[in-house]
Amino acid sequence: MAMDLDIATPKQYLDGVPYEKFAAMREAPGLTWHPYEDNGFWAVTRHADVKEVSKQPDVFSSGIGHTNLWDLEADALEARRSLIDTDAPDHTRLRRLISKAFTPRNIRQWEQVTRDIAGELLDEFKARGGGDWVDAVAAPLPIRVILSILGVPLEDADHLVELSNYLVEGTGDQATLQPDAFGNTTELRLLPFGSPASHALYEYGEELGRARLAEPQDDIVTLLVLAKDEGDRLSASEYRNLFQILVFAGNETTRTAITHGAMALADHPDQWSRYRADPALLEPMVEEIIRWASPVLHMRRTAATDTELAETKIAKDDKVVMWYASANRDPRVFDQPFQFDIGRSDNQHFAFGGGGPHFCLGAFLARMEIEVLLEEMAAREMVLEPREPAARAPSNFVNGILSVELGVAS
Amino acid sequence: MTGEQWTMTVDTDICIGVGQCEMLEAEVFHLDDDTGMAVVIGPKTLPTDRADAVLEKCPSGAIRKAPRTPTPLEIHSSSDRWKANPCSHLR
């Protein structure tokens, strides 16, 4: 395989997603074999093929090798396993335990909390005439909302944001934390994202769990810790890894969508005007923002048996990687895929996944947060303007923006 | 007559509450807020193409379709006896 189709080296993502490489792979026949460290993976880049992989969880396993590109040893796999890298029947049990907290109506209960937080952040941003959108709005909003839902006290929010940022860093090339940061004594390879910040999150989750067991409240940590207490419903390891993934997924991904969305609206003021003139465009605009952002760039599966996809033979234990960022620009599915068009109907994007059992648990929550934020922006007649190019994260896993200066038109 | 109608059901032993059904057909599917599982609501039926679309989207395979049982009125009014001479009972 030609080096110029390398989509794995994280540093290139500093310049943006390598869309032209994905386009070349989509046009090439079959699946593309991509070398990676000692192994390699099948790059699945077409929308239809990503869908097919998602619909066959028994063949394309999330549990065998976990869901990132790298290989882990057996003890690391077990220590780090969570909802996302589990197969049926454990996945079914875990998902059913938590899914009720994320139904559309249960999520709507948090709408007012979300609106209050969004309003406060936007008022501040508008008063200053702009600034770093990530720091001022995109990062704090989702973290404060997920922490409210989890039941984490507000005074601990900043600490958890910091920890979460370190986890994101763990998906790139460089790590700024020492292995013994936060009092960590566990080997890094046994920690999610290989980061000592995970240790700190574990400790926090366990402490909060103990507090909720003593005094149950109407929040997710109480839900989980009561299940753990019942003995066979949720193990200690499952509990702490589930807490950790909820903090990470509920925070980092929505931040990314909100940032790319704001940048897109600043770069395409005609689209923002379109929505202002027709508020019924709110829902399609949210879906288009999510497609545009593709916050999670890929997820990996492992073939449980010999199989075939797109006329390509796949051997048992081969890694198979779904590139949602590519599927979301597939011209076979999206008319003018590189056009930011808030009026797209029947937006079949895969930013929440290809539609299998691991479909994003937080999809209704993400949509609600983005909808509310945009409504509050419109209510304040805020028009965003570009100022500085964004500083991107060097990650092949998340489409991360570290900071971006935006202005508010006066 | 319009196309065939199908009665939709959800097997709650299998359902994991992803909610693709509600996203597609909110008049017929609803995620229960106490259990997180899908329940069938409203008319509980869909025409063939929409029923098949929901079946295809359901990630767990918990959704099933069955031919809708016609109502007594439908059986009655589709009978050939009435079509041939709808007012014969008045003679």
Give a written overview of the molecule.
The complex is a heterodimer of chains A (about 400) and B (about 90). By secondary structure, chain A is of the alpha+beta class. In chain A, about 45% of the residues lie in helices and about 10% in strands. A five-stranded mixed sheet of chain A has the order 1-2-8-5-3. In chain A, strand 1 (about 30-35) and strand 2 form a beta hairpin. The termini of chain A are far apart. The model of chain B has no long low-confidence stretch (mean pLDDT about 85). In chain B, the strands form two sheets. Chain B has a three-stranded antiparallel sheet, with helices on one face. In chain B, strands 2-3 form a two-stranded antiparallel sheet. Chain B is of the alpha+beta class and about 90 residues long. Chain B contains four helices and five strands; from the N terminus they run E-H-E-E-E-H-E-H-H. Chain B is elongated and about 55 Å long.
Percent in strands of chain B: 15-25%
Which residues of chain A sit in consecutive blocks of at least 5 with pLDDT less than 50?
A: none
Radius of gyration of chain A: 21 Å
Number of helices of chain A: 16
Would you tell me the structural class of the helices and strands of chain A? alpha+beta
Widest sheet of chain B: strand order? 4-1-5
Poorly predicted residue ranges of chain B: none
Q: What is the CA–CA distance across the termini of chain A?
A: 52 Å
Number of helices of chain B: 4
The total beta strand count of chain A reads 12
| Strand order in space, largest sheet of chain A | 1-2-8-5-3
Q: Spell out the helices and strands of chain A N to C.
A: HEEHEHHHHEHHHHHHHHEEEEHHEEEE
Seen as an oligomer or otherwise, the chain set is heterodimer
